[in-house]
Amino acid sequence: MALRSEKAFDKGNEIGQLNTGDLVEVTNRKDATYWYAYVPRLDKSGYLDKNYIQIVENATASNDSWTVKVKKGYLALRSTAAYNNSNEIGRLNTGDVVLVKDSSDSTYWYVYAPGLDKSGYVDNRYIYNSGLWTVKVETGYLALRNKAAYNESNEIGQLNTGDTVQVKDTSNDQYWYVYVPQLDKTGYVDRNYLTGGSGTTTPSMTVKVESGYLALRSTKAYDKDNEIAQLNNGDTVEVIEKKDSTYWYVYVPKLGKEGYVDKNYLK
């Protein structure tokens, strides 16, 4: 099925191709034939013929939809909630979408993978949704902990006002399990110091360079040694943190990598 830039059948407006099992997030369904949708696998939005899409297991809540992100290799879909070479039943790549069905386990969540048309367990450290929460503390910092309790010995990181986290588990009344992109760590934080939620999304921006490329860097500075990737004009990034006046921390879906870029070359 074609993803199109306009609400019409035309070879010239085709901007992507969708296969059976691909997942889309419909954002506008006013037209009788062509609905506007976002395609996580392609990281693109456009129009598609509504007659060729269907609701999968009534998974209409956006919080049920999570995206795979691995720095290299693949994320295994498993038949049991454990790491074992013999229980691998499928492979998921960065950008693939899964629907979370059971998140009761601390590590392995039960999901449905539309692209594979299979259900199984995946390591929840490698799936993310778009909901972001922002840290807000009057003074000091918010501790990231390895246990859902206040204890000086379980502190594994420090978060400041303005830092963002992705919430993974809200079952505890006080301590929520989160992933912290800038620390690349998961742990527990006191939810009373978080603001935002599912309405706060990761803003997408486009690279704009007149010539050459935009460097993705491991640190907030211009240095040949900290360059970890190259971004071209038109590439898309998701801004995670933008407190610095020059270098913003971003995620690059195409590469499955995070790092710093000069904000002056984003639009």
TrEMBL record:
<keyword id="KW-0677">Repeat</keyword>
<dbReference type="InterPro" id="IPR003646">
    <property type="entry name" value="SH3-like_bac-type"/>
</dbReference>
<dbReference type="GO" id="GO:0005737">
    <property type="term" value="C:cytoplasm"/>
</dbReference>
<feature type="domain" description="SH3b">
    <location>
        <begin position="130"/>
        <end position="198"/>
    </location>
</feature>
<protein>
    <recommendedName>
        <fullName>SH3b domain-containing protein</fullName>
    </recommendedName>
</protein>
<dbReference type="InterPro" id="IPR036028">
    <property type="entry name" value="SH3-like_dom_sf"/>
</dbReference>
<dbReference type="InterPro" id="IPR051228">
    <property type="entry name" value="NADPH_Oxidase/PX-Domain"/>
</dbReference>
